[in-house]
């Protein structure tokens, strides 16, 4: 549930405004709320100073809170065409479609947002049109990576190009604010193309129904499954509103291949078992999602039988292990087979975030004066800082939620300068 604020000369720029699911509002609390976001009170109480909001990409943890919080900000939103389309669909659901100013941007484009000059840089991630950006003020230039990985063979969009990032080395980048999600993992994150091959081998060997649970915003994974359906003589169907909305946004913005058909989920029941490939939501064990309803045989469009296969093509987000294990046990109790990444040597899921060697490469290309790790637990931030240090970045600043990083004229952190917390949202 990312919410980053950059301040200069009495103005603020927000980067991302996301949600998380089934989380406690207070750390250690047993009870959870279905949809949670960062408490925006600090900035909403001075919204006249908020120059704009920039959304890096269309994942829920970066864009999902905007429809619920925008009335507290009432400022323009800057993002790319695909993310804008996803956001418009969300705004329509809460009656805000015609009220929110959305400015679409593209690769290498520059916008002046209040005192901030923002330039966008395309990279690769597990969703269409992910962007990094530089944020420049008279005090210095920052580089905000957003979520990223180095994927030379993506299923969707252009392959990762280092040219623009190498050029940043000549622009005296004061600080690089960098994704830390996979900073504990050595090597490189595998390509989406590797995942396509792994899923193809898995599904091609099956003679019964196959259900794949994955994140709805991973359009590249959905395209891969569409191609696999064609190659294995199956029909692809989507079960879950978020999946249908995401593919709709991909179609409108030209990211969904015209040669990949999708059938109505209501037709699945008429097909032989060996022709069914359903993609569903709920890979994290969410109680109201489709996978959970399939486990208890309460899904209107599809029923599973013994020896059908459920594939979890998604990471186990820390904190969700018990919910996922409970879901797997329900399937096994009905003799429905399940397959998770740790059950097979085949690559059935790949991360969209950089491992240590990718972090080293980007730090080496950009050559910032300062590394600021974000987006991860404390151990991930510390590991990212270690990678930056080994990559010859002169200084590293590691903080926590609520810390205020002063980057100019001197560098320091004011610990817990801003009161932070979580609030529950209604969907």
UniProtKB/TrEMBL annotation:
| Keyword RNA-binding (UniProt) | yes
| Keywords noted in UniProt | Exonuclease, Hydrolase, Metal-binding, Nuclease, RNA-binding, Zinc
Keyword Membrane set for record: no
Name a GO molecular-function annotation.
Answer: exonuclease activity
Q: Which organism is it from?
A: Marinomonas algarum
| Superkingdom to which the source organism belongs | Bacteria
What is the name of the protein in this document?
Ribonuclease J
Q: What is the lineage of its organism?
A: Bacteria, Pseudomonadati, Pseudomonadota, Gammaproteobacteria, Oceanospirillales
Residues annotated as domain Metallo-beta-lactamase: 1-199
User: Which PANTHER family does the annotation name?
Assistant: RIBONUCLEASE J
């Amino acid at each position: 549930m990312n919410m980053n604020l950059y301040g200069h000369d009495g103005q603020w720029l927000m980067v991302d405004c996301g949600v998380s699911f089934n989380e406690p509002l207070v750390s250690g609390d047993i009870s959870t709320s279905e949809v949670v976001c960062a408490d925006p009170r600090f900035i909403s109480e001075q919204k006249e100073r908020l120059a704009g909001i920039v959304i890096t990409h269309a994942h829920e943890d970066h864009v999902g809170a905007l429809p619920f919080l925008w009335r507290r900000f009432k400022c323009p939103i800057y993002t790319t065409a695909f993310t804008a389309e996803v956001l418009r669909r969300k705004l329509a659901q809460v009656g805000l479609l015609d009220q929110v100013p959305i400015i679409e941007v593209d690769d290498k484009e520059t916008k002046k947002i209040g005192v901030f000059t923002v330039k966008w840089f395309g990279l690769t991630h597990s969703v269409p049109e992910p962007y990094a950006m530089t944020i420049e003020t008279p005090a210095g230039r920052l580089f905000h990576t957003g979520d990223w990985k180095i994927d030379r063979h993506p299923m969707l969009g252009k392959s990762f190009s280092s040219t623009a990032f190498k050029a940043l080395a000549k622009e005296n980048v004061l600080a690089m604010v960098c994704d830390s999600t996979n900073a504990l993992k050595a090597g490189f994150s595998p390509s989406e193309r590797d995942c396509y091959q792994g899923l193809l081998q898995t599904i091609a060997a099956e003679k019964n129904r196959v259900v794949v649970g994955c994140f709805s915003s991973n359009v590249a994974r959905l395209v891969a499954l569409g191609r696999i359906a064609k190659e294995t003589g199956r029909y692809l169907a989507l079960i879950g509103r978020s999946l249908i909305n995401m593919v709709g946004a991909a179609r409108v913005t030209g990211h969904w291949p015209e040669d990949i058909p999708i059938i109505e989920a209501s037709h699945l029941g008429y097909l032989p078992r060996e022709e069914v490939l359903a993609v569903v939501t709920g890979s994290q064990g969410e109680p109201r999602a489709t996978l959970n309803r399939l486990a208890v045989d309460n899904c209107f469009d599809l029923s599973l039988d013994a020896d059908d296969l459920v594939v979890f093509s998604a990471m186990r987000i820390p904190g969700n292990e018990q919910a996922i294990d409970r879901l797997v046990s329900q399937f096994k109790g009905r003799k429905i087979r399940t397959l998770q990444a740790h059950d097979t040597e085949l690559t059935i899921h790949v991360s969209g975030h950089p491992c240590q060697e990718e972090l080293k490469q980007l730090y080496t290309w950009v050559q910032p004066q300062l590394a600021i790790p974000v987006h991860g637990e404390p151990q991930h931030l510390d590991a990212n800082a270690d990678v930056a240090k080994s990559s010859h970045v002169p200084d590293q600043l590691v903080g926590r939620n609520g810390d205020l990083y002063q980057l100019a004229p001197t560098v320091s952190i004011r610990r817990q300068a801003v009161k932070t917390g979580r609030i529950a949202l209604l969907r």
